[in-house]
Amino acid sequence: MPKLIRFQKGGEPQISPSDWQVFRATEGEESAALLPGKVIVPFSWWTSHGTKDQYHQRALKGEISVWFGSDDDVLAHRDVILAGLKLWPILAVDFPIFRDGRGYSTAALLRDRFGWSGELRAIGDVLVDQILPLSRVGFDSFALRNDQSPEVAIRQLKSISDRLQDDWRANRSQVASSGIKKPALWSIPNNTITDLQIKARADELIARLQAIGKDHRDIRFATSLAAEDMVITDAIVASGVPIALFTLETGRLHQETIDMVTTVEQHYKIAIKRVYPKPTDIDAYVDRFGLNGFYDSEEAKKACCGARKVKPLNIVTGKQIGRAHV
Predict the structure, then answer these.
(1) How many CB atoms are closer than 10 A to CB 289?
(2) Which domains does the chain have, with CATH numbers?
(3) SS3 for the chain, per residue?
(4) In sequence order, what are the residues at sequence separation of 6 or more whose Cβ sits closer than 8 angstroms to the Cβ of residue 230?
(5) Band of the pLDDT at 28, cuts 50, 70, 90?
(6) Mean pLDDT, range 100-110, rounded to an integer
(7) What is the mean pLDDT of residues 38-56?
(8) Following CA atoms 100, 103, 104, 109 in sequence, which dihedral angle do they give, to the nearest 10 degrees?
(9) Which of 157, 233, 245, 324 has its CA 20 to 30 A from that of 67?
(10) 233 with 245: CB under 8 angstroms?
(11) Average pLDDT of the chain to the nearest whole number
(12) Please, is 122 exposed, middle or buried when counting C-beta atoms within 10 Å of its C-beta (0-12, 13-18, 19+)?
């Protein structure tokens, strides 16, 4: 059984036994396969079987809770989840592999959007290196992978004394006494530019893109989905120039960013290629520096950018006669 660490908000981390079993159902499994006692079932299983009387009664007794997988869209099942929150004693999020960061977004949504204040457990491929960032987005218990040390995990959780960023557990105001000044938040500047001036600048951008299209046969644009890149994307579509769009899917993007790629594709009726790092490069980086080693040194930070951004970008932008990059 995985080693469990509990770290309640405002409390101290501790090794703890767990009386909850994780049920990983396969298609077609019914009550005969459901374990006795307290069981955490897949959310997808609950949506199919949870309304059946025998399971609903067990849930009312506090014997059934659910875990969410990486592919579960919690926002799309809002009503089902809100109803379930009245039944489920705890919630869990599964990490099928430690490199899959979608569970972080799921945890944040459950805490912020759904208002879940009960226990939120990380299960699956949970490593010591993940403990700190997991605790910041809303997890307060962690079922470590069998080869991980709970003692090292607790030391990790106790290693931070001051916070420079707000998170689920605390905010950065606690360092105010140390003399660190909070940075002023950026705000949209007052702008007196007229609609006609905006149109003129947009037309100029479109004309530049069309000129590029006359001189080059293979044109590509790397979009980060930031505001300025969205302006260029809009101009590319308006220009009619066949420019291929791509984005770097580093494996550390927030779910909202990943969803935005699909939103842009659907809005403009275009395709945006996802460019991924090589798994072998990521494995080599993690083996050497740890999952979040980029926090620890400049060398690790450069190595992380090299594996997740620079190498994939170099592959896409390799030298070729006639190719252009916007």
Answers:
(1) 20
(2) 3-161 (3.40.50), 195-325 (3.40.50.620)
(3) CCEEEECCCCCCCEEECCCEEECCCCCCCCCCCCCCCEEEEEHHHHHHHCCCHHHHHHHHCCCEEEEECCCCCCHHHHHHHHHHCCCCCEEEEEECCCCCCHHHHHHHHHHHCCCCCCEEEEEECCCHHHHHHHHHHCCCEEEECCCCCHHHHHHHHCCCCCCCCCCCCCCHHHHHHHCCCCCCCCCCCCCCCCHHHHHHHHHHHHHHHHHHHHHCCEEEEECCCCHHHHHHHHHHHHHCCCEEEEEECCCCCCHHHHHHHHHHHHHHCCCEEEECCCHHHHHHHHHHHCCCHHHCCHHHHHHHHHHHHHHHHHHHCCCCCCEEEC
(4) 223, 264
(5) low
(6) 91
(7) 90
(8) 150
(9) 157
(10) yes
(11) 86
(12) buried
- What letter represents residue 81's amino acid? I
pLDDT of 179 over the 60 cut: no
State the Cα angle at 225 between 252 and 110, rounded to 5°.
Answer: 50
pLDDT at 91 over 70: yes
The pTM of the full predicted model, rounded to 2 decimals, is 0.56
Q: How far apart are CA 47 and CA 143, in angstroms?
A: 24
Are β-strands 323-325 and 14-16 bridged in parallel, bridged antiparallel, or unpaired?
A: unpaired
Residue burial 70-86, b: 16+ Cβ < 10 Å; e: rest:
bebebeebeebbeebbe
Residues 271-318: tens digit of each pLDDT = 999 999 999 999 999 899 888 888 778 898 899 999 999 999 888 877
Residue recorded with tokens 């080599």: 284
Distance CA 65, CA 19 (A): 12
With a CB cutoff of 8 Å and minimum separation 6, the contacts of 92 are 22, 40, 65, 66, 67, 68, 120, 121, 122, 123, 143
Comparing CA positions, the residue from 235, 243, 247 lying closest to residue 207 is: 235
The burial of 140, by beta-carbon neighbours within 10 Å (0-12 exposed, 13-18 middle, 19 or more buried), is given as buried
